[in-house]
Amino acid sequence: xxxxxxQSVDDVVADVTEREGYAVENLAPATLGGASAQxxxxxxxxxxxxxxxxxxxxxxxxxxxxxxxxxxxxxxxDVDGQTVLIATGxxxxxxxxxxxxxIQWGS
Length: 107
Fold this sequence. Notes:
Oligomer: single chain
């Protein structure tokens, strides 16, 4: 989970999907709790090493690093002009996606 207060969803998605060492699949528009969003799957590109690519999320409290052989599902959501980035591992992607479909954003 990360908040990008000064970037649009399109800007965040472009930044993430253009990173060296990332492979992107299933990029699609979405709506979560009435908010516009984009969702996509990330993995390490062939030949990329997890230690050599930029983490998906870097924060003093958490870091989300892509791992070899694993897929990360990502949602980038516009919540009142702030982009909220949500990521989960492949094993929880469907359950998290179903939960996000019921979310109600506060104002």
